[in-house]
Amino acid sequence: MYLESPPPKPEAEPDRLPLALRATALGIVAFALLGVLLFRLWALQVLHSDQFAQAAVQNQIRKSIVPAARGEVVDRNGVTMVTNQAGLQVQLNPAILPQPSDCTGIRRHHLERLKTEPGCRVMYRLAGVLRVKFKNVVKQYLQGQKINFGYPVTLSERVTKAEVEYVKERMPSYRGVQFVQSFDRSYPLGALAPNILGNIGRVSSDDLKGGSQARFFKGEKLDPNGTVGKTGVEMIYDRWLRGVDGQVAQTFDAVGNPVGQPYLVQAPQAGDKLQLNISSDLQRVAQHAIQYGIQVAHSDGQVYANRGAIVAMNPDTGAVYALASYPGYDPSVWVPPYKGQNAVLRAAKRAKRDKFAASPLVDLTSSAFPAGSTFKPFVAISAWQHGVIGPGSTLPCTTSYQSPYDRSHHTFNNWGPVNATINLSTALEISCDTFFYRLGNSFYGDYLHHHSEPFQQSLRALGFGSPPKGFDLLTTGGLVPTAHWKQTYPCFQAGSPAHHWRNSCGYPNMTQNNATIAQLWEPGDDINMAIGQGYLLVSPLQEAVGYSAIANGGKIVAPHVVNKVIDQATGQVVDTVAPRVVRNLHLSPDLLGEITQGLYGATHAADGTSSPVFGRYTGHPFTVYGKTGTAEVPQDCTNCSDAWWSGWATNGHKKLVVVAMIQDGGHGGVAAAPAALRVFESYFHSKITAVTGTDVSH
Amino acid sequence: MNAYFRHLDYLMLATVLSITAFGLWILKNATRTDPGSEYKHQVLYVMVGVVGMMIVAAIPPSWMRKALIPLYAFVLASTGAVMVMGTTVQGGTRWINLGAFQFQPSEFSKLLLIVGLAALLANRRGITSPAKLTWMALGFVALPAALVFLEPDFGTTLVLAVLLMGMLFVYGMPWRHFVWFGMFVAVFVALIFSILPAAGIHVLKPYQYNRLTSFLHPGQNDPQGNGYHLTQSKIAISHGGLAGTGVAGATQTRLGYLPEHSTDFIFSVVGEERGFLGSAWLIALYALFLWRGLKLITRSRSVFGSLVAAGVVSVITFQVFINIGMTIGLAPITGIPLPFMSFGGTHTITNLLAVGVLLSVHVHARAADEIAI
Question: Which tens digits make up the pLDDT trace of A147-161?
Answer without folding.
Answer: 666 677 888 777 777
